[in-house]
Write the structure tokens for this entry.
Amino acid sequence: MRIAIAFEFASLNGGEQSMLAVVDSLRGTGAAAWEFVGLAPPEGPLADALRKRGIRLVPLVLQDKAGRRFPPDVSAGLLREAAVEAAADVLHANSLSLARLTGRLAARQAAAGALSAGQALPVCTGHLRDMLRLSGAAMRDLAGNHCLVAVSGATAGYHIARGLPADKVRILHNGVDLNRFRPRPDAGELRRQLRADLGISETAAIALTVGQIGLRKGLDVLASAAALLAEAVPQLHFVIVGQRFSAKEETRQWEQSVRATFETGGLAGRTHWPGWRDDLPELMNGADLLVHPALQEPLGRVLLEAAACGLPIVATRVGGTAEILRDGNSALLVPPGDREQLTGAIRDLVAEPELRKQFALNGRRRIEADFSVGLAAGRLGAFWREMYGACR
């Protein structure tokens, strides 16, 4: 079965990483049964990752050189051309915005009736990885797909409550590679190396935060909480891994404000911004806890990765987070935007090594039971086969 996967951006973030992990797993278990084609920007980290895997890439560029999206009808036409070139059995949109386009194309084809074999689109499916405000037109576009995949029950419920027919969506959680993301036997050395790289004491505690630098990630709340912890927990350092992709002035100014809050809150020299890193398993084995202060989170991939590594977690109770972690069992969950509760949870977890050990064990067990990439790949593969069979 040939699956064409449409990617909007050239970057390699959570949604792209999750899909590539599924692709790797399916190819590893049945290479002859699965063939994948990537419809994606021809240059960048994602294109490099596709080529490294030997996956055919059909160029798909939906923005001008200034980064502005083309009008929807133009983008839909470009996606259609790429899909026809791929000649796949299933066209899968890896993001909500692309799922709008695949839904629009599928609805138009259904209205037009039979087309010649060379011009007919494949079965159209897509991923819901976001929880955004959507217009009625957007919901109608999404509903044009044969079916959609929501990464969490919270994500599915959000869209159903806003008009998406319930029979148009399936809940399929993401998974992670349990061999790559695992507690490492050399964790002690990784701890020492991380602190040496940062130029800090071997006894320093490290709170790790990972993700795109953007408004919905709650870094402003973390900065305020960190300022409250500066004197109370003097050995605590914050390592913020990620980068800002948005070029909007609002987001630029927000990032500057967040950095300033860290610097002026008594944390100069104790806040570290290493940018994007591809050695997350090593970082997670070298840190003391993960802090995930997101204001909105359909299903945080970094939470799966951290729990798989046995890294204790403080996170906000938003979106699909509670579908992964249990408060007081594998993490401390606090309300989004609540600086005081976030402060208290970080302070408590830093101060209680036995609680961290308990969370590490329980978190790993949770991921092993329900969130391995093998399980996720099997479920998505079965979904694609079902959709293809139902439409043929």
In short: The longest helix spans residues 249-267.
